[in-house]
Amino acid sequence: MDNITKNNRLLWIDIIRIIAIIAVVAIHVEDSFIFYWNKIPLTDWWASNIYNGFIRFPVPIFLILSGYLLLDKQEDDEIFFSKRFSKVVIPLVAWSMIYWIFKNNYNVLSLFTVNFVQQLFANKIYFHLYFLYVIIGLYLITPLLRRILVHASAYDVRYYLVLWLFFVPISSLLGLLGYRNGIPLVAATWDFGFFFIGYVIKKTRITKKIVYLSSLLVIVSIVVTIIGTYYLTGRSEYFYGSVHVLFAITSVIYSPCLFILIKAIFSRFSVGIGSASGKLINAIGRATMGIYLVHPMLLHFIVHGVSGIRLLSVKVLSPIVSIPLVTFLLVVLSFIIVLILQKVPLLKKIVP
């Protein structure tokens, strides 16, 4: 158990959520540039690539945080599901309906079709909603995993981590080099591994040496991602495929190390829950899921232009400016929308 106060613990958890949601939004913003190799000036592409190197961590960080908070906790299965499932299933169904109407030219009647139901079950409504499906899957396995971990030895934990490292990042690296692994291991999935790493971090005594090593590995991961993205994109002449394999590999090092680093830094600070800064941090932390759900719709309008102005066009602003600017605008506007929705009794359930 962390030897820190409740206020501190809440602070670093909220800070991680806030940093991660900003990175999520930034990734979706810089996608307007990083995919356009040879279609935009090289300096603009490089600006996007450098930003990209720093922000390729949010989904693993969210999964690590979930594992950290959930897997060591013992509670009745009924209590677990009643507390959490409604916070995922209701938003998933509600926002699937909203985004389905949105992408079908605001045709409400399109909801009453077999196609909508099929797309909902197939996780094909809108690109960002996949994360809710991942969370539902992890929640379903959590009660069983908790019972297994109660009786698991340190050796058992290390054994699974070694399996996961081989069947996910190392196999991905070998595949990049032309050596494909033909042995399937269903339990060693990308998402589940990060969820499990959260538990491992909680059970590990984080020393100064580990923090310093994590800091070094964060820097190395960023540099490798930036240079590797440039090399692989230049070699294939487009941003896809092998580049995403690179992200899968570097995120295995980057995300856990960044999690440890952020926790180590912010668990030292104390902010009163009743203070202005404490209230703001807590409010943003509680709004991160809502921000995640809302921002793609706002981004759509920015990408396609507002009043004829396209902030994400290299003809208007350099990505050096537009990526942080649009990210900030999206986070702030999404946060305001979420705050409003949270004040409405019925609607607050869709932005938990």
TrEMBL record:
<keyword id="KW-1003">Cell membrane</keyword>
<feature type="transmembrane region" description="Helical">
    <location>
        <begin position="157"/>
        <end position="177"/>
    </location>
</feature>
<feature type="transmembrane region" description="Helical">
    <location>
        <begin position="238"/>
        <end position="262"/>
    </location>
</feature>
<dbReference type="InterPro" id="IPR002656">
    <property type="entry name" value="Acyl_transf_3_dom"/>
</dbReference>
<feature type="transmembrane region" description="Helical">
    <location>
        <begin position="183"/>
        <end position="201"/>
    </location>
</feature>
<feature type="transmembrane region" description="Helical">
    <location>
        <begin position="125"/>
        <end position="145"/>
    </location>
</feature>
<feature type="transmembrane region" description="Helical">
    <location>
        <begin position="84"/>
        <end position="102"/>
    </location>
</feature>
<dbReference type="GO" id="GO:0016413">
    <property type="term" value="F:O-acetyltransferase activity"/>
</dbReference>
<feature type="domain" description="Acyltransferase 3">
    <location>
        <begin position="11"/>
        <end position="338"/>
    </location>
</feature>
<dbReference type="Pfam" id="PF01757">
    <property type="entry name" value="Acyl_transf_3"/>
</dbReference>
<protein>
    <submittedName>
        <fullName>Membrane protein, putative</fullName>
    </submittedName>
</protein>
<feature type="transmembrane region" description="Helical">
    <location>
        <begin position="12"/>
        <end position="29"/>
    </location>
</feature>
<dbReference type="GO" id="GO:0005886">
    <property type="term" value="C:plasma membrane"/>
</dbReference>
<feature type="transmembrane region" description="Helical">
    <location>
        <begin position="283"/>
        <end position="303"/>
    </location>
</feature>
<feature type="transmembrane region" description="Helical">
    <location>
        <begin position="323"/>
        <end position="341"/>
    </location>
</feature>
<dbReference type="GO" id="GO:0009246">
    <property type="term" value="P:enterobacterial common antigen biosynthetic process"/>
</dbReference>
<feature type="transmembrane region" description="Helical">
    <location>
        <begin position="49"/>
        <end position="72"/>
    </location>
</feature>
<feature type="transmembrane region" description="Helical">
    <location>
        <begin position="210"/>
        <end position="232"/>
    </location>
</feature>
<keyword id="KW-0812">Transmembrane</keyword>
<keyword id="KW-1133">Transmembrane helix</keyword>
<keyword id="KW-0472">Membrane</keyword>
